[in-house]
Design a protein that fits this description.
The protein is mainly alpha-helical and 131 residues long. The protein contains six helices and two strands, in the order ααααααββ. It has a domain of 64 residues: Arc Repressor Mutant, subunit A (Orthogonal Bundle). Strands 1-2 form a two-stranded antiparallel ribbon. Strand 1 and strand 2 form a beta hairpin. Helix 3 runs antiparallel to helix 4, helix 4 packs across helix 6 and helix 5 packs across helix 6. The termini are far apart. It comes from Vibrio ziniensis. This is MarR family transcriptional regulator.
Length: 131
């Protein structure tokens, strides 16, 4: 594949991703009041899980995340007590041997954006929770 062609293809993909993110953020802003009413009704049933999910959705709108980062954020949000990188990778459907390294890249970005919090346990064990 010629290098110039490869650059054009990559540029088109980036435009498509940015357009999709822009469409999603504008669509969620217009439909946000209806979504908030649903969350208020659901809080009676499961307040902790719905609150974490609502925070994750609000965070996605503010920061442009890749689909992988969004998936990792949703997995962390569903596990309120905290989850380690290997478990995140396994829940996402990765092989056991590379599950932790698969999740680590996305977790670094989420830590920079203050969407998740890293907690050090005994020794070298680490868990991640939503901020």
């Amino acid at each position: 594949m010629r290098l110039a062609h490869k650059r054009k293809v990559q540029a088109k993909l980036q435009k498509r991703i940015k357009a999709t993110v822009a469409n999603l953020s504008s669509a969620t802003k217009t439909a946000k009041p209806a979504a908030e009413k649903k969350v208020v009704e659901k809080k009676v049933v499961k307040p902790a899980v719905e609150n974490a999910a609502a925070q994750a959705v609000a965070a996605k709108v503010d920061v442009a995340l890749t689909p992988k980062q969004q998936q990792v954020l949703e997995i962390v949000a569903t596990n309120v007590e905290g989850i380690n990188p290997k478990s995140i990778g396994l829940e996402a459907g990765q092989e056991e041997s590379k599950a932790a390294s698969w999740a680590t890249g996305a977790l670094k970005k989420l830590l920079e954006e203050n969407l998740v919090v890293k907690e050090q346990l005994a020794g070298n064990k680490v868990i991640y929770k939503t901020a």
